[in-house]
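[Protein data]
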Amino acid sequence: MDVRTLVLTLALGNLALCAALFFHDTDNRQRGGLASFALARQFQSVAWLLLYFRGVIPEPLAGPIANLLLFTGVAFDAGALWERAGYPGWRRAVLPALGVAAAAWLACYVGGVDAGVRVAAGSAIVGAFYLAGAAALVSGWRQASMLRRFMAVALAVLGLAIAGRGLLAMAMALSLVRGWAGVEAVHLQGVGYVAFYLAMLIGGVGYLLLARETLQGELARLEVVDALTDVPNRRGFYGALAPWLALARRPGTPTALLILNLDGFKRVNDHYGHAVGDKVLKAMVEACRRQLRDSDMMGRLGGAEFAVQLPRTTLADAVLVAERIRASIEANPVKAERAVISLTASLGVTTMRADDSTVSLFKRADEALQAAKLRGRNRVVAAPPPGEAEGTGT
């Protein structure tokens, strides 16, 4: 495959990706990193088309404009990867660097600097942006997937190859080194375009696979996390509780369970609307979290009912924690548009026993919660220890 065919392949490959992105989920409006990735494809496809028609179209289009568009496209590729890595402010660093690089290359072009030097400068710019994209993929290396690690290594190698090709071309143009074993500048040019082609394939397809990987991870997370309050949902809480039920069969400090229900939450929804109800739930969760340790776990069972797991906590200590939670909720009313909403909560407390199943554990805690409601709400009731008939409460 000759160099001209490679250039056309790069142009058509980027155009194909542009078309795929155009027809992909039009309702999504290509928000976030995908929008930056789409812009990168557009810049690069136009740049490669201009380079393909070099000699047919005016030189300013096929020369400086094509190269500047190529620099911009590769810079946006790096930016899309940084945005995918969780750095939405990448433009504050990448765009100034792009401006400096473009100005330096234009100075070489306008100043009549030797073509080999311009090639070296352009290759170094492109290689540097590919390395910047690889750096984005390297962040969080320990938790990174194998796909992300492969892309990081591949883009770093290809970026170095593109930059190295330019430096060798410049050295040969300035007669600092001569071709060896039949290798001439045209061969180095071919190597550079092959590296571009591989970078387009790995960067383009890999980025889309990364986006799919991220989406799958988010969907998997939402299966076990409540989207509103960002705590485990019923499924997630039950799953995390299972190992502690097994540990309850061993001697040692027990693990406690609280069940909490906001008093009169239906009234809040009926009078103020579900948007205010959502705000109340989030405020209540934050009030609870301030009273919990990092090792404690809070989960939403449904509606305004939540559970809290307190590892290695006796019943007496769990009652104290529950009382702190109750007092914190009561002391932190929620400000809505039309009113200040005072909140109270009822809590049932128990500890895991050696013969407990999930059903028996929650049945006992729920009975304590119902007792708290029957006693007037806004109180804590502990399930009775084995052998006792009634719970204690505050």
